[in-house]
Write a structure and sequence with these properties.
Length: 341
């Protein structure tokens, strides 16, 4: 799938680079004149079981004064649009704070001239999500969560206006929740070629369709614990437990382990949460890993691969017979069952 997606994105980039070289050596910039608005899709309209961690297009050339409208197309999964992170991500703020909770500077809106860093755990400027400032190429610009299924207070789109003063050059936009979900923004001089918004949109829709088709090739790995909590590759994550139902004897311990290179999950019994954005949905609660579970609300909190999360396994000992249902609190529809005899 990576080959399909990256090849398609490379074609878009090559087409953009090729525009404007005619036989008459006409130096007038090709493409639309004046400020333009470009649509960028986040994720794709796949089954809620699949999260496609990519932007469509993944590379775009624009000019100062242009606008980018990012819209989350996923039916279930949240993402962010974040600018100001270096290409090597060496100044990327953490997803989880040292206290073990979600970083508000990563999950929430933040617009500041302050440069981000690996210790950046609070926005120094009170954000106004309804009126985000133009991005001038410096500081930190983070949309906060964008989702279609995270509740009425979480928007599904954000608009990034590029300041007239932004310096031409290469910039990165990415999702704070998914470290391999990165896009390339090339800001060209005002007299430089660029594609029309309609052409960019058509190319992006083609690439997204190819990515959705490629999800059919993903199969679950052999569990390294008792249950795999999600799996996939660096682009697509499968939101499921494998096996979805497991049978054990009273006194046995069940271990869940994430099998995605980037995507976290929770193992949450008797979940009180209605949406992924509910307070506490990502935090550990109840019986700790390795403890004995009998009933009630218990959650692993976020577990995921290093170095993005503090741990990627969670274990519970089941003391008595019964049927125990659990879910991932951040991925609607992701559910499993432990049957104890």
């Amino acid at each position: 799938m990576r080959k399909i997606l990256f090849t398609a994105l490379a074609v878009v980039a090559l087409v953009g680079a090729a525009c404007g070289n005619d036989d008459n050596n006409d130096k007038t910039a090709k493409g639309p004149s004046g400020a333009q608005s470009y649509a960028v899709d986040i994720d794709a309209a796949a089954s809620p079981q699949f999260q496609i961690g990519a932007y469509f297009p993944g590379a775009i050339t624009v000019r100062p004064g242009d606008t980018l409208v990012f819209t989350n197309k996923s039916k279930a999964h949240p993402h962010t649009v974040t600018l100001g992170i270096k290409a090597d991500q060496s100044n990327r703020p953490p997803i989880i704070t040292p206290q073990g909770v979600e970083n508000p500077a990563a999950f929430g809106p933040c617009f500041t001239d302050t440069e981000p860093s690996t210790t950046f755990t609070a926005c120094p400027t009170p954000p106004n999500p309804a009126a985000p400032p133009a991005f001038a190429g410096k500081g930190y610009w983070n949309s906060g969560l964008l989702a279609t299924a995270a509740g009425p207070t979480v928007p599904s789109s954000t608009t990034v206006k590029l300041a007239d003063s932004i310096a031409p050059g290469d910039y990165t936009f990415l999702c704070m929740l998914h470290p391999f979900m990165v896009g390339s923004l090339k800001v060209a001089a005002k007299d430089t070629d660029r594609l029309a918004p309609a052409t960019v949109k058509a190319n992006a829709e083609r690439d997204a369709a190819a990515a959705v088709t490629a999800t059919a090739s993903l199969t679950p790995p052999a569990p390294s614990g008792n249950v795999s909590a999600g799996w996939g590759d660096r682009i697509t994550a499968v939101m499921a437990y494998d096996p979805a139902t497991i049978s054990v004897k009273a006194g046995d311990t069940v271990t869940w382990k994430t099998a995605s290179p980037y995507e976290p999950h929770t193992i949450t019994f008797q979940s009180p949460f209605k949406t992924p954005s509910d307070k506490g949905a990502t935090s550990p609660a109840g019986v700790k890993s390795g403890g004995t579970y009998t009933s009630g609300f218990t959650s692993s909190g976020l577990i995921g691969p290093a170095p993005f999360f503090p741990g990627n396994t969670f274990s519970l000992k089941f003391a008595k017979a019964g049927t125990y249902n659990y879910v991932c609190a951040i991925h609607p529809g992701m559910a499993g069952v432990v049957t104890v005899t």
